[in-house]
Design a protein that fits this description.
The protein is mainly α. It has three domains: 8-38, no CATH class; 47-126, no CATH class; 133-200, no CATH class. It is built from ten helices and no strands. Helix 7 packs across helix 10 (181-200) and helix 9 crosses helix 10 (181-200). It is globular, with a radius of gyration of 22 Å.
Length: 201
């Protein structure tokens, strides 16, 4: 796939400024897109649902979160247990149709109704999920400038040609000042990738 093609435009122009690396990145994107079009449609009444569930288990972000939990526990001298990742429980839930899992029109319908019957005064039947996103955004805004200054930018990524070292300061400043969550999250991802690159260089 030529650089600048339809898939290539999904990649910011400050990523992979080296022409050869950009071509390789574009080629991988194209190959992955073409491979998905050749995949057969899942069979059965819940085929697409099950395919998405299984893809979640092997997603890189899930692996990253699991590794972070393990490492955090190790540093604190704690063994982190995740009962909802129990193999038998996951296998059991995969055998339950989505219409039952979302009974009452809400996620986790089965457990909501069970808890509501067991503890009728606690309001589990209508309790909304709490998100830590606002807290994470606040922490990013408070800590990012000092972290960026302490790391001195992203020399490791720039030396490898993964990002444009001459533009990254401006890109990160614009992302940090943006009110959009995705732009703010970009600053976190770049810092994490730089730290990882330095540790594995």
């Amino acid at each position: 796939m030529r650089c600048g093609g339809r898939l290539g435009r999904l990649t910011p122009n400050w990523v992979a400024p080296c022409a050869a690396l950009r071509r390789e990145l574009d080629q991988r994107l194209q190959e992955r897109a073409e491979a998905r079009t050749r995949e057969p449609d899942p069979s059965g009444p819940y085929g697409f649902y099950l395919r998405d569930v299984f893809s979640t288990f092997i997603h890189s972000l899930v692996s990253m979160e699991q590794e972070e939990e393990f490492e955090t526990g190790r540093r604190m001298g704690l063994r982190v247990l995740s009962p909802y990742w129990d193999e038998a429980l996951v296998a059991f839930l995969l055998r339950i149709p989505p219409r039952l899992l979302q009974k009452g029109g809400r996620e986790k319908g089965l457990v909501r109704q069970t808890l509501a019957r067991r503890f009728p005064r606690l309001g589990f039947g209508g309790q909304r999920k709490l998100s830590a996103l606002a807290f994470f955004q606040t922490m990013l805004r408070q800590e990012w400038p000092a972290a960026w200054q302490k790391m001195g930018g992203t020399p490791a990524l720039a030396d490898l040609g993964i990002i444009d070292g001459k533009r990254i300061d401006t890109v990160m400043a614009e992302s940090f000042s943006s009110n959009r969550w995705r732009a703010l999250q970009l600053t976190w991802e770049v810092l994490c990738l730089e730290a990882w690159t330095r540790a594995h260089a």
